[in-house]
Amino acid sequence: MTNEVLLRPVRDDDLPAFFAHEQDPQANWMAAFGPKDPSDRAAFDAHWARIRADERIVNRAVVVGGRLVGRVAAFPVGEQTEVSYWIDAAHWGRGHATAALRALLREVPHRPLHARAAKDNAASLAVLRKCGFVVIGEDSGYAPSRGTEVEEYVLELPAEGADQPDR
């Protein structure tokens, strides 16, 4: 087995593992803007049925050494396309999120791409910066996992050759 990060389409049998990943309180705290109730399996299943039916969304399972370790996605938000990822907390700190996002960026050529991360989520911000995203703004929103408003950075992966803000 290799430690190479591979992406593949999400399968039905991935969903129980994704649901289990979302049960980790620390992961939910870091993600901040995750599900309202991570333990609500019916809501989880309904969410995944909706997003898997939407042909505009690119969802990929992240596999390392034959083991499912998370997911990565690109999806429309208004007129923009955002990216997100979730790596099982047991696999944090090994570069899997960065490798998975880089692989997704090769698959999704559309630019610019956008992302959001809680200001205190240093690990996610590091992943995004390593992949070329730059902070272009700030926002805040209610974070269900924290039960409060959370400040976040808005980031962009600009088109090749585009001027990048000094931030």
TrEMBL record:
It comes from the Bacteria. SUPFAM superfamilies: Acyl-CoA N-acyltransferases (Nat). GO terms for molecular function: acyltransferase activity, transferring groups other than amino-acyl groups. Keywords: Transferase. The keyword rRNA processing does not apply. Pfam families: Acetyltransf_3. Residues 5-160 form the N-acetyltransferase domain. Gene3D superfamilies: 3.40.630.30. PROSITE patterns: GNAT (PS51186). InterPro entries: Acyl_CoA_acyltransferase (IPR016181), GNAT_dom (IPR000182). The keyword Signal does not apply. This is N-acetyltransferase. It comes from Micromonospora aurantiaca.
